[in-house]
Amino acid sequence: MPTFTRSDALRGAEFAHADLKGARFVGADLSGVVMRGVDLLGADIESPWLFDDDGSLLVNGVDVVPLIDAELDRRFPGRAERRAADPDGLRSAWAALERTWAATLERVAAMPAGTVEESVAGEWSFAQTLRHLVLATDVWLGRAVLEVDQPFHPLGLAGHGAEEDGLDTSVLTTEVPSYAAVLAARADRVAMVRAFLAGVSPEELDTVRRNPWDPAYAETTRSCLHVILGEEWEHHRYAVRDLDAIEAAARDDRGEGS
Predict the structure, then answer these.
(1) Would you call 136 exposed, middle or buried from its count of C-beta atoms within 10 A (0-12, 13-18, 19+)?
(2) pLDDT at position 164
(3) What is the mean pLDDT of residues 87-109?
(4) pLDDT tens, 13-43?
(5) CB 123 within 8 Å of CB 242
(6) Which of 66, 153, 202, 229 sits CB 3.0–4.6 Å from 82 for a disulfide?
(7) CB 63 within 8 Å of CB 56
(8) Residue of 195, 198, 197, 176 lying closest to 187 (CA atoms)
(9) Is 129 in contact with 136 (CB distance < 8 Å)?
(10) What is the rounded CA–CA span in Å between residue 179 and residue 111?
(11) Long-range CB contact pairs, 83-91, < 8 A, 24+
């Protein structure tokens, strides 16, 4: 199976009557792609940027982004609050998120040993997802809002290219920590956000901040908090998707079917 990596060679290319059945696109830029007369049956698309303010995805002439957004809000009660603009709304949004994660943590605790370290189709394990959310809090609250020079918990997990994007994450451990240690780090960062929101004022939400990945771009305290809330809901969705897959595979192994 050929592999195409980061390159401009495929920009603007035309695939006429090409058989791409079963192809996998990871971290690929497909913005502006035009598909005509294509067979998309069984296609599976994950796009965390789908709900950007100016985002759209046309299927047979219909922008499906609002439909997908509404359906995810229905599936995940509290998700619709992630764009709250005032202190009370943000506090309510975070409380809803905490309740959601608490239920998922209880679910995981009742699953077989080793579940938290299991990867589905090469995605982050449940424990790795929690570690990444620790880092997201450190980046967008610790660095951007609180302006701490070195805000990173050692157990945070960065995505690819963190150092290249302007943040020194050398303090992050390369060892695999215990799940108990991950839970402790995660609980600490959840409490950090809760404590900040408890005292935030409307004026502070409007305070201009520097984007932690690119200081040339301006953010506000509010927009930084929106990034945290967005990260939380997206990664929760990924986590429960993979937990469902793990449970389904276990049922198949036992011959129980769906």
Answers:
(1) buried
(2) 46
(3) 98
(4) 888 888 988 888 887 888 889 989 999 898 8
(5) yes
(6) 229
(7) yes
(8) 195
(9) no
(10) 14
(11) 83/226, 83/229, 85/205, 85/222, 86/202, 86/205, 87/197, 87/200, 87/201, 87/202, 87/205, 90/197, 90/200, 90/205, 90/222, 90/225, 90/229, 91/197, 91/198
Assigned token pair, 154? 């050692």
- Give pLDDT tens digits for 195-233: 999 999 999 999 999 999 888 999 999 999 999 999 999
The string of DSSP letters for the chain reads -----S-STTTT---SS---TT---SS---TT----S---TT-----TTTTSTT---EETTEE-HHHHHHHHHHHSTTGGGGG--SHHHHHHHHHHHHHHHHHHHHHHHTSPTTGGG--STTPPPHHHHHHHHHHHHIIIIIITTS--SS---TT----TTTTTTT---TTS--S---HHHHHHHHHHHHHHHHHHHHH--HHHHT-EEE-SS-TTSEEEHHHHHHHHHHHHHHHHHHHHHHHHHHHHHHHHHTT---
**What domains appear along the chain, each with residue ranges and CATH number?**
1-75 (no CATH), 81-253 (1.20.120.450)
Cβ–Cβ under 8 Å, residues 166 and 214: yes
Mean of the pLDDT values across residues 152-178?
Answer: 82
CA dihedral 198, 199, 204, 209 (to 10 degrees): -70
Instruction: Please tell me the distance from the alpha carbon of residue 121 to that of residue 116, in angstroms, as a whole number.
Output: 15
Residue 208: strand pairing partners: 220
